[in-house]
Design brief:
Number of helices: 16
Order of helices and strands: EHEHEHEHEHHEHHEEHHHHEHHEEEEHH
Keywords: Transferase
Strand order of the largest sheet: 3-2-1-4-5-6
CATH class of the largest domain: Alpha Beta
Number of strands: 13
Strand content: 5-15%
Shape: elongated
Number of domains: 2
Protein name: CoA transferase
GO molecular function, one term: CoA-transferase activity
Largest sheet: 6 strands, parallel
Structural class: alpha/beta
CATH superfamily of the largest domain: Crotonobetainyl-coa:carnitine coa-transferase, domain 1
């Protein structure tokens, strides 16, 4: 899909955020066709540029930085200086959206807060991403994904129970809260752009990591709010569905995800336990949840008798959801992942090329992923400032002064 035909073609985004939640939002908007200008500190840039190893061979780019900055243009500006602030204000005056994740009130001293910038550009959609939002008893606190996973409840639900070997709270293997916040922020920006078509007026979007973490507790939040019972860690088991977890096989592990009673009957036929669905304790999902401790040993014993691939083939033949537990090398070698083009290889001016994970959104059969690699630090500074009307001589003076 060409950039010119993408949904956000013609939209300009000024991304002054760092690390993950804000840049993830910016990358999503870039994939959708927006011109995303990433403003970074001279010399050091985004913190994640230094979060390695691993590094992209032939370059100074960290893998962490590469995961969230495809399709953007990088400009280096020192916003602590009056000249740098003036440049960012010029960019903001010409932008549709601004993304930032500074501490609450942190940009006011630079004149880059929403109240200041909306006087320059009333149509600006200004998206703030913080740990706890603009109005909270914790508004002054910094917010980090790991900390928010703990405070927001997900770690109380992830991991084995305390009484089991290896029991205890566990964080997600990726920055779960940051990524969800970036996705929610992108959705909010899209809604604001849609609303602005009629009002011609921008708005201030207030995104908080803590709010998002609570918001994505989903069924577990409602399990608590509905029953008053505090959910506990269950390892790979599901609080509302049985059998729906990982099981050991003769040569490894697999997951079984039985979603209804008919699937359970077919599952039991495959594992040669046809009488289980006839038992009132196991005939319905509600009964199976209540009597999981009596049911699971019989299932575990049956599954341990055959190899994973044998079970996968047998269950797939009768429509019982199941799957292997893949390491990442197997993920990217999977026929589905290859067929859907989820590994994207783009030209990179330092390394020659870079492998990225493509955006999973497809429109009319095409991935929307931006066609340009994450930029090197300051790669587009002169190009963007030239578009602002800053002359070559002025740019040279700014660079000599360390402002860009």
């Amino acid at each position: 899909m060409s950039t010119a035909t993408k949904p956000l073609a013609g939209i300009k985004v000024l991304d002054i955020s760092r690390v993950l939640a804000g840049p993830w939002c910016g990358q999503m908007l870039a994939d959708m066709g927006a011109d995303v200008i990433k403003v970074e500190r001279p010399v050091s840039g985004d913190d994640t540029r230094h979060w390695g190893p691993p590094w992209l061979s032939g370059s100074s780019e960290s893998a962490y930085y590469l995961c969230a900055n495809r399709g953007k243009r990088s400009v280096t500006v020192d916003m602590a200086t009056a000249e740098g602030q003036a440049l960012i204000k010029q960019l903001a005056a010409q932008s549709d959206v601004l993304l930032e994740n500074f501490k609450v009130g942190g940009l006011k001293r630079y004149g880059l807060d929403y109240a200041s910038l909306k006087t320059l550009n009333p149509r600006l959609i200004y998206c703030s991403i913080t740990g706890f939002g603009q109005e909270s008893p914790y508004a002054h606190r910094a917010g980090y994904d790991f900390m928010i996973q703990a405070m927001g409840g997900i770690m109380s639900l992830t991991g084995k129970p305390d009484h089991e070997p290896g029991g205890g709270p566990v964080k997600s293997g990726v920055a779960f809260t940051d990524i969800f916040t970036g996705l929610y922020a992108a959705n909010a920006v899209l809604a604001a752009l849609y609303q602005r078509r009629d009002s011609n007026v921008g708005c201030h979007i207030d995104m908080a990591l803590m709010d998002v973490q609570v918001g994505v507790l989903a069924n577990q939040a409602l399990n608590y709010l509905t029953s008053g019972h505090v959910p506990e860690r269950m390892g790979n088991a599901h609080p509302n569905i049985v059998p729906y977890q990982a099981f050991a096989t003769a040569d490894g592990h697999m997951i079984v995800a039985v979603g209804n009673d008919e699937q359970f009957k077919r599952f039991c036929h495959v594992i040669d336990q046809p009488n289980l669905p006839l038992d009132a304790r196991f005939a319905t999902n509600g009964a199976r949840v209540k009597h999981r401790e009596e049911l699971l040993p019989a299932i575990a014993a049956a599954l341990a008798t055959q190899k994973t691939d044998t079970w996968l083939t047998a269950f797939e033949n009768v429509g019982v959801p199941c799957g292997p537990i893949n390491t990442l090398d197997r993920v990217f070698d999977d026929p589905h992942v290859k067929a859907r083009g989820l590994k994207q290889t783009l030209p990179h001016h330092q390394a020659g090329q870079v492998d990225l994970v493509a955006n999973p959104i497809r429109i009319n059969g095409e991935s929307i992923s931006a066609p340009t690699a994450p930029p090197s630090l300051g790669e587009h500074t002169h190009q963007v400032l030239d578009e602002l009307g800053i002359t070559r001589e002025q740019r040279h003076a700014l660079r000599q002064a360390g402002i860009i």
